[in-house]
Every structure is written in structure tokens, then in C-alpha cells.
Amino acid sequence: MEGSLCHEFETDLPAADVWEVYGGLRLGQLVPQLLPHVLPKVDHLEGDGGVGTVLLVYFPPGAAGPRTHKEVFTKIDNENYIKEATVVEGGFLDLGFKKFMFRLEIIAKEENSSLIRSSIEYEKLTTTIKAMPPLSVLVL
């Protein structure tokens, strides 16, 4: 069974400025500071922020679901402002998912505004998934 979730957020910043944060490693540094209740910690394990970069992502203590997962940046498109990361170990894979991928797109709207589109694409191994947080909280 395959599925996806998507969230869009409009900002009054130019797409290039938003991409400065979302396109590399800065997002993993800022999210724990700004949203510790969603992702309290992100460890940078290897890579320079490009394709192949590996992060260890921690989830809040006491939350339903996994404690951590390891993800790899699988696509970085600096021209079209697209970033994809795939979970490769632990986390949602341990809960019954075959595939779990995050995708971020920064879309220029006008000179000083842009749209942040975050989505999750997944494929389940079974129709029953172990206890986990609602997927909607993961689409920032």
C-alpha cells in the first residue's frame, strides 16, 4: 500500500533565501531549536549537505513510534529547490514501512514570496502499522 501526505506554507521570503536554510544542513540545526517537541535532536553523521549526506534524527521522548531513524539525502536540486531524503535505517522502517521518503520543494511565487511544500511518500509492508505518531506532524 502506497501513500503520501503534503503540506504547503506560504512565506514572505524569496525562494533563494528559504533554500539557503532548507537546501543543506541548516534545517537540521534549526528545527531542534525552533520545534523541539517535533524533533529534539538531529545528528549530522556524514556528508557535506549534498546527496549522500546522512543524518540521525531523534523523536521526542514519550511520543508514540520510533525513537530515531537514519536518513540519507537522495536528491538535492539547487536550480529547482528540491531536496529528498529517504529513511534507510530504524524509525518507520521498523514499524512496518518498506519505503519512507521526505521531499521539500521551495517554489518562487513573486519576488519576495515563496511556497514551502513538504511531503512524505511511503509504502507499507503490511496494512497494520505499529504505534506511531500521526504522519501529519512530520510534514513541516
TrEMBL record:
Compartments where found: Nucleus
Gene Ontology terms describing biological process: abscisic acid-activated signaling pathway; alkaloid metabolic process; defense response
Superkingdom of the source species: Eukaryota
Organism: Setaria italica
Main location: nucleus
Signal peptide: none
Family assignment from sequence similarity: Belongs to the BetVI family.
Keywords, comma-separated and alphabetical: Alkaloid metabolism
Single GO molecular function: abscisic acid binding
Any one GO cellular component localisation term in the record: cytoplasm
Classification via InterPro entries: Bet_v_I/MLP, Plant_def-hormone_signal, START-like_dom_sf
Protein name, entry field: Bet v I/Major latex protein domain-containing protein
Domain Bet v I/Major latex protein: start-end pairs: 3-127
